[in-house]
Structure formats: C-alpha cells, structure tokens
Amino acid sequence: MSAVKNSLAGLGALILAGSALAQSGTSALKGHNSNAPVDVAADRIEVQDRADRAIFSGNVVAKQAGLTLNASRVTVAYSSGGGIEIDRLDASGGVTVTSPSETAKGNSAIYDLNRRLITMIGGVTLTQGRNVVRGGRLTIDLDSGRAVVDGGAPAGVNSGGGRVTGTFTVPQRAGANNPGT
Fold first, then answer.
1. Is 136 exposed, middle or buried (0-12, 13-18, 19+ CB in 10 A)?
2. ∠ Cα 114 75 68 (to 5°)
3. Could you write out the DSSP letters of every residue in 121-158?
4. Which one of 49, 52, 81, 96 has the fewest beta carbons within 10 angstroms of its own beta carbon?
5. Domains of the chain
6. Which runs of consecutive H residues, i.e. helices, occur in the chain?
C-alpha cells in the first residue's frame, strides 16, 4: 500500500512541478525563441490594418523556431510602429501545438509573444510519447518551461468535467510482479 501512496505522491509532484510528461519536469518549449520570425500559411487572409490585425482562415499553419501551430482560424495581433511586430496569436478550431517532443491539442489557444505564454482552453490533451494528460486548460510558460494543466476552464467552455486525468508509462522492472516472469 505504501508503494501505491509513494507512486501517487510522485505522480502528483510531477504534475504540480509542471509537465508531468517531460523527463526533466519541463516542457520541450523551455527557452523557445519567441523573437524568431513567424511563418504563416492559410487558405485565406484578411488584413485589418486599422485594427492592427490579420485573420488567417482555412488550414492555418504558423511556425516559429521549433514550434508549429495548426488551426482552422488564427488572428494575428500586431503593432505597426516602424514595422510590423507580432504581439499575439489567437487560434480556434481544432488547435494543435507541436514541439520536437510534445503535442498539445485543444479547442482554442492564445500565444502571447510579449508575455511568452501559450494558453490552450477546452478539451486539452498534452502528449509526450505514450504519456498523456487531459484537462480543461493548459498554460506553458516559455521562460521556465513550466506546463500546468487545470481541470477547469472559463464558464461556457466544455472542459471535460473539471478534472485532470493522466496516463503515464512505467519502466518495466524484472521480476516486479510481471505476468509471465
């Protein structure tokens, strides 16, 4: 019984520490270069210069360094003082964010380049290898690499019952109650 308690306590510590998925306890996006150019491709673009935004729709793919964001629609907010500088990406419609070793999926996402935060909301799934965590909201701090999955989401967003769930791989140990050994 104490082995089960220790395992559960260890699992809880990993989740609280940030990304329970990464071996190091941090997201693969730690230190991501948010100053790198952002390349965006889509079926359609609507530029709203007076509002300092561009709306990309239809199979949107946005790439920056090792990060890729896919969605049905992405609104790019920018400042235009002496050149266009992207401040924020708001994505909706089956959003997927991938890094070299992780994939996050959700209903919508906000990538705040100035605050260096990625927030995904609604039916969030964070995957690394065979490890999976599900919840209502995921926040990734690109400075620290800390990834937090919450069960709840803002009112009106389907968050999956307000709980965080996870499935994690366990190293196979010789003779440790393994069937057939």
1. buried
2. 70
3. EEEEEEEETTEEEEEEEEEEETTT--EEEES--STTS-
4. 81
5. 2-167 (2.60.450.10)
6. 2-17
